[in-house]
Amino acid sequence: MQAFSQVLGAEVPWIEWPLSPNLVPDTPVILDLLEFCAGAAGEPIQGAYHSYYRHHHLSWDRDAGLARFVADVNLLFRRNAVAYELTATGQARRLLPQAIANTIGWALFQTGDAETDRLLEAARQRFVSPMPEDRQDALEKLWDAFERLKTLEPGVNKRAQADALLDRVAPRGSGFREALGREAVELTSIGNSFRIRHSETTQEALTSLDQVDYLFTRMFAFVRVILKGTGRGG
User: Fold this and answer.
1) Which one, of 97, 105, 109, lies nearest residue 214 by Cα?
2) Residue 77, domain extent
């Protein structure tokens, strides 16, 4: 117990141990504690009985113990309608609405540009994180990927390249092409007006994670249409 407390204090210093019955830690702290425990979870396997010392030999099954720990925690999450889960490796992640989870989980990134693919994959992984700062970072990386997407087509400047990109998704002059153009302008304006990619004093900060989630899903939907329409995944 003493060793557990000391190591926990080193790795998760913002938690009070033993836990107070009157003070509930913040959700990210609880998830840090669960991940810490998952990192050491295992199942003792009782072996042959040693008659002289009157005890059983024990072996240690890491995989079985971790699986049981994850299952027990996830059962508590489900029964209490908590929108998080532990993965099979013991990492905490938040549960998304099914439609969003399917879209994000099955998207492919094959833009032909390694940095754009890296930004999109990093955004996807961080968006499911339970940590608020990771979700903000996911939004930033998604906006960075959007700006790089604008430059993947040939053209004399970024505006021409962006137009060529949208022209591959829908015929120029069509209603959908016009809608895509308006949305691209609006998303660019949002990126310049809010504190997403830059931190100038003139930019407005996002004040809730709901705002972060809304902007992420809106941008991701747009990017996915572009990827699918240009044969770059999606």
Assistant:
1) 97
2) 2-93
The whole-angstrom separation of Cα 85 and Cα 226 is 31
Span 139-180, pLDDT tens digits? 999 999 999 999 999 999 999 999 999 999 999 999 999 999
Domains contained in the chain, number: 2
Q: Are residues 24 and 114 in the same domain?
A: no
Write down the pLDDT at residue 50.
Answer: 83
CA distances from 222 to 46, 119, 133, 137, 219 (A): 55, 15, 23, 19, 5
122 and 196 part of one domain: yes
Task: Give the global pTM.
Answer: 0.79
Strand runs labelled E in the chain: 43-50, 55-61, 84-86, 92-94
Find, among 151, 122, 118, the residue nearest to 226 by Cα: 151
Of 76, 93, 110, the residue that ends a domain is 93
pLDDT band, very low/low/confident/very high, at 98 (cuts 50, 70, 90): confident
CB 91 within 8 Å of CB 128: no
